Fold this protein.
Amino acid sequence: MIIDNFTNSEFSYNVGLEKSGKSILVLVCKSTYIFEETECSKLIPLEKQLPPQDVDLYRGDPKCSSLLYENDFAPLKNKCDILVNAYAYSQGNDATKEMLVGLVAPGVNKWIRVYGERRFHTINKVISLSEPVPFEKKEICYENAFGGGHKEDSDYYIKNPVGTGYCLKIKKINGTILPSQEYAGEKIVDTVKHYTPVSFGPVARSWQPRLSKAGTFDKSWMENRAPYLPVDFCEGFYQSAPEDQQVDNLDFGDEIAIYGMTKAPKVSFKVPETKMAIKIQLKNGTDKNLIPKLDTVFIDAEKKQVSFVFRTHLNIKKSIVEFDRCIIGTPSKAWERCQMTGKKYISLKGENVFGKSCQNCS
């Protein structure tokens, strides 16, 4: 398939499967911007745009670390994921023992209390907590949230096996590092209660509660359904964000704000107006016009970057070879004339299709 991209965004495609087992062509556009550490920040398109990510990225060994960025080729997403990779920064010139960090957007109002390192101590089976060690900068990730376990017991917290603080045997609690992240209204005081692991990053597919949405892979599935998805498969499985960071829609002009995750106390920006349209030309002479939907926002506060991922799909009748050309954005008149006359088109300058996408907040 020939690709003609007339946008400043990166584009790629892949083949996916619907629950019914039908093959679909998954089309993904990705726009990345730089933001400033200020309220109502202007968004500037990244000079070298980031391509859609085709593999999952982990913080370390995938067996024992959290997911940093999930690949961009989920077949579909019915909601929009808003994700953040960041550190908590003490505000001012002094270190802090604890602070609040937050993510606020339409449909999202999430606050996490971040502590310096703390440990559990036990004396005569009585559990106490040490004072937090002051910090100036601390990573926000699932490794620092409630969870974890012990290899010798094969006992892991399935909602977050890479975390810390989970321990069923009191004799093993002494000296255990407490989670340094908890919901603003939830205090972690022991190692047995099933606290909610809290962070702003993606939840791995093998963790609960996401895993439960994958459906039932049992003997009945093996005999009657394989290799297709189970009948009880839920499309919510494709959402990688925590459920309190998923919104039905995110539109042009909606404001997103992060608090305490840069040296500035608050950084905010508006969703840019990105003109995104796709035309698929089939070899049978017909055209399919598609409008990708924004379904993933990834904020990297350390790099001061935000990526917006747009997705759509098209059913494949027989094979991918039935698609002849994919046109992203609005072609120039010169390009259209070349197509009509059969001449080769060579662009002398890049097209600016971002339009009003970099306006300041009002």
Notes: The chain has a mean pLDDT of 89. The first strand starts at residue 2 and ends at 5.
